[in-house]
Design goal:
Length: about 450
């Protein structure tokens, strides 16, 4: 058997037997522990062989801009940033830039070969693609590090595939949105040691959940929201609004951004496409931007909707991890439970419409809101007085609601609300970087 045939045979076996990709946001009950271990170990062995194959033929499987796929961990890391996918790169980017600027050595581990961070070549950053699905989970479950920064909820929660490594001294959560924990799945932050707070509003919520669960109190650090700092910096708000500030809106010159959440709390699952087609037929320009998680776990749903809407020339899709262009282009946002509503209002001073999602009492038990008892996000929407919550009976009159909301919009309360509820505006990337550096020193000394 010649060498080429042997390599080809190994590659065929790997592709056929490697476990399917799974994601850390999966609902509980994704498989029992024994099956997980077997699949994970099998995946790890095959992934190792696959790496040998790619090295042998000197070919990158997914990302032609990277000359070498780096998949191994250091024996022990000091500071680690863990990212599930490229859609969350904008959360870490300001922190990464500040760590590099401060000449602090750190590791950046990603489950996405297309993560933009892998394109950065810098002596202070050990950036590595660690594989997908159970292969990556095994590696993270055995990671040894002083401090790990992640935005992934439910690390270590029973029934979820991503375990909490016993060899991580301090696991730190950074938010991927300006929202509370209401519609995170239960146990979302139970195994974290510290939380980079967006604002004061999170403190009573987190403390209440800790008391109910009987878990140790976390360190709550006033950090801010790095990705929002970036959005504000790049929004060029004056230029984006100047041409539209005094005009009266009608269907033909209005652009609507449709940005649903995913799963049972997203309007694509709850309402389908009827109202979207109605808006398209009315002549509105529509941008449909699915939640990043939908692109992972609801691929069939998204494909079916794409096929259904492709006959409309005024409907375009936005799959870009960076939503800046869509945010700037749109006049109004339609969403559901997603925290994107506050991003849209607070960064771009533009109005939004909330499509309500009906939850059964049984469904609510899956989410933190069932223990918290209320949703700060929904109270915040009312406080800024900038959005409109649609009643289900009004869905057929959505076009009228849109024009009414646009012609009555008032920016007065937005900036005040933003300043009062977000820590360290414009500086959060540096503050989080300093936190990681200082805590790493303390852990090294301890």
């Amino acid at each position: 058997m010649n060498k080429s045939f042997l390599i080809g045979y190994i590659f065929f076996v790997i592709c056929f037997f490697v476990p399917s990709v799974s994601y850390a946001y999966l609902d509980p009950g994704t498989g029992n522990a024994l099956l997980y271990v077997i699949l994970s170990l099998t995946g790890a062995v095959f992934y190792f062989l696959k790496g040998i194959f790619y090295k042998a033929i000197k070919k990158n499987p997914s990302h032609s801009s990277i000359n070498e796929i780096k998949t191994s961990f250091s024996q022990h890391d000091s500071i680690v940033i863990f990212n599930e996918g490229k859609a969350y790169w904008h959360i870490f980017k300001p922190v990464v830039e500040k760590l590099i600027e401060k000449k602090q050595r750190f590791s950046y581990y990603t489950m996405d070969i297309k993560d933009p961070c892998l394109l950065i070549d810098n002596q202070y950053m050990n950036n590595r693609f660690i594989g997908e699905g159970s292969v990556a989970y095994v590696k993270m479950g055995n990671l040894s590090a002083n401090i790990v920064l992640s935005t992934t909820p439910n690390i270590g929660t029973d029934g979820y595939p991503l375990p909490r490594s016993e060899n991580i001294k301090k696991l730190v959560h950074i938010s991927h949105g300006f929202n509370d924990l209401s519609y995170y799945h239960k146990g979302s932050l139970d195994h974290y040691d510290a939380v980079m707070l967006v604002g004061d509003f999170e403190i009573p919520i987190i403390r209440k959940l800790e008391t109910i669960r009987g878990v140790p109190k976390k360190e709550l650090y006033p950090a801010g929201l790095p990705y929002m700092d970036e959005l504000i910096k790049n929004a060029n708000q004056r230029k984006s609004n100047s041409a539209k500030s005094n005009r009266c809106f009608d269907f033909q010159n209005v652009t609507i951004l449709l940005a649903p959440s995913w799963g049972r709390k997203g309007f694509l699952n709850c309402y389908g496409t009827d109202f979207i087609e109605m808006l398209a037929n009315k002549g509105f320009n529509l941008i449909l931007r699915p939640h990043p998680q939908s692109l992972k776990v609801e691929k069939k749903l998204i494909k079916n909707i794409e096929n259904k809407l492709k006959k409309y020339s005024n409907v375009v899709w936005d799959f870009n991890p960076d939503g800046t262009e869509s945010f700037q282009t749109a006049d109004i946002l339609i969403s559901d439970t997603s925290g994107i509503r506050l991003d849209f209002a607070l960064v771009y001073q533009k109005p939004f419409i909330t499509i309500p999602i009906s939850f059964t009492q049984e469904t609510l038990q899956d989410f933190e809101v069932s223990d918290i008892g209320y949703s700060w996000n929904e109270d915040a929407m009312k406080a800024i007085g900038y959005g409109y919550t649609l009643h289900e009976s009004e869905i057929d009159k959505l076009d009228e609601v849109i024009t009414d909301v646009l012609n009555k919009k008032d920016n007065k309360a937005i900036l005040e609300f933003r300043d009062n509820n977000i820590y360290n505006l414009g500086k959060s990337g540096e503050i989080i970087a300093d936190y990681l550096i200082n805590n790493n020193l303390l852990l090294e000394q301890g």
